[in-house]
Amino acid sequence: MFEIPTLKELAERARQAFRVNLPGSDAYLWPNNINPTAKVFAGLTHEVFGFADYIQRQKFALTADLENLILHGEEVGLTLRPAAPWRGFATVNAAAAISFDVGAVLQRSDGVDYIATAGGSIAVPGVFDIEVVASVDGSAAAPIAGTPLDIISGATGDVIGATAQISDAAPLAAGVDVEDVETFRARILFRKRNPPHGGTAADYVAWCGEVPGVSFYQDRPTVFVERLWSGAGTVRLFPLMFDLYDDGIPRAADVQRVADHIDMVRPAGAKVAVAAATAVPVDVVIAGLSPGTSAVREAIKSELRGTFRRLARVAGIDQADSRLPYLAAPFSFSRSWIWQAVANASGEERHIIQSPTADITLTPGQFPTLGDVSFV
Question: Is residue 2 part of a domain?
Answer without folding.
Answer: no
